[in-house]
Amino acid sequence: MLQQARVKVIRVASRLNVGGAARHAIILSAGMSADGFDTLLVHGSLAESEASLEELLLASPNVRHVKIPSLGRRVSVWKDLTAFARLIRLVFA
Fold it and tell me: Considering only CA atoms, which of 53, 61, 47 is closest in space to residue 16?
């Protein structure tokens, strides 16, 4: 019997701040992982004034994740290029 390769999904969130989008990304990644998908959640850094949802991520042990510190909300040419290069390496790894 041939085994099918697991479908790979990379989800990118600029940051895991308190809010619906970050919560959705974490919960969706956990559910897809449980359903057999090979998921990776990539996220960046928070602004100083933002509260974090990273504790929800850490409470979901089946969610593989990578933090790219240079990825965030603020526009910064150098940080954005650094984050983009890291994302490219993750996609083609």
Answer: 53
DSSP-derived 3-state class of residue 33: helix
Give ∠ CA 83-86-89 in degrees, rounded to 5: 155
Instruction: Give me the amino acid identity at 52.
Output: S
Contact 43, 13 (CB under 8 A): yes
The reported pTM is: 0.86
Rounded to an integer, what distance in angstroms lies between the CA atom of residue 60 and that of residue 30? 7
Backbone angles phi, psi at 43, to 5 degrees: -140, 160
Per-residue pLDDT of the chain (93 residues; tens, 9 = 90+): 567 778 899 999 999 999 889 999 999 999 999 998 999 999 999 988 888 988 888 888 889 999 999 998 889 999 999 999 999 999 998
Hunting for tokens 């929800």 — which residue is that? 56
CA–CA separation, 73 and 61 (whole Å): 26
